[in-house]
């Protein structure tokens, strides 16, 4: 294994093994190569192998105990379909949404730009966290024009029956289309703590604008996803 010159050897080894697991080359229930084999194959010491496997255990990708074989688990990222609203989860995952805060706040710059209002103007916000299999996986901030949300279910501290599309449609603002921007970056301190991220895992940031009639932006959502928990699937029409 060549040295990339930046990461520790255990992180480089963990990266190679992670790629094999996520690609299915080391399938669920299959044993990983032994410590002795990994030390020979990658020209590293036993401690490096042990630490690399510890990284993968912390991510839930492998399981095993000292002195026993290490096997790949069946845990795989949840699949999010791009362009679908709301995003479905991979079957078999236990998904729970916890509402953290509902109220009004000063519009962040990107949100304000999407709504066409000055930065800092009041907007309604619903902040929640998605747990997958009992672990925090996604932080969500959904923003609405204050005048639209005030006095409606959007401003109430409770789950929305049918989700925000149902509520918005009932208010006369049916969703017509959404536009997503997706990026990957290192986590902030707050995100790292809230999502209980394993080390060396980035977050996937999804910035979504939902439009109603007249191409009017009616909902802006910021989603911060734990990088090891999600994959995005695109389904595109054939050219021509």
From TrEMBL:
<keyword id="KW-0805">Transcription regulation</keyword>
<keyword id="KW-0238">DNA-binding</keyword>
<dbReference type="GO" id="GO:0003700">
    <property type="term" value="F:DNA-binding transcription factor activity"/>
</dbReference>
<dbReference type="GO" id="GO:0045892">
    <property type="term" value="P:negative regulation of DNA-templated transcription"/>
</dbReference>
<dbReference type="InterPro" id="IPR028978">
    <property type="entry name" value="Chorismate_lyase_/UTRA_dom_sf"/>
</dbReference>
<dbReference type="GO" id="GO:0003677">
    <property type="term" value="F:DNA binding"/>
</dbReference>
<dbReference type="InterPro" id="IPR036390">
    <property type="entry name" value="WH_DNA-bd_sf"/>
</dbReference>
<dbReference type="Pfam" id="PF00392">
    <property type="entry name" value="GntR"/>
</dbReference>
<dbReference type="InterPro" id="IPR000524">
    <property type="entry name" value="Tscrpt_reg_HTH_GntR"/>
</dbReference>
<keyword id="KW-0804">Transcription</keyword>
<protein>
    <recommendedName>
        <fullName>HTH gntR-type domain-containing protein</fullName>
    </recommendedName>
</protein>
<dbReference type="Pfam" id="PF07702">
    <property type="entry name" value="UTRA"/>
</dbReference>
<feature type="domain" description="HTH gntR-type">
    <location>
        <begin position="7"/>
        <end position="75"/>
    </location>
</feature>
<dbReference type="InterPro" id="IPR050679">
    <property type="entry name" value="Bact_HTH_transcr_reg"/>
</dbReference>
<dbReference type="InterPro" id="IPR011663">
    <property type="entry name" value="UTRA"/>
</dbReference>
<dbReference type="InterPro" id="IPR036388">
    <property type="entry name" value="WH-like_DNA-bd_sf"/>
</dbReference>
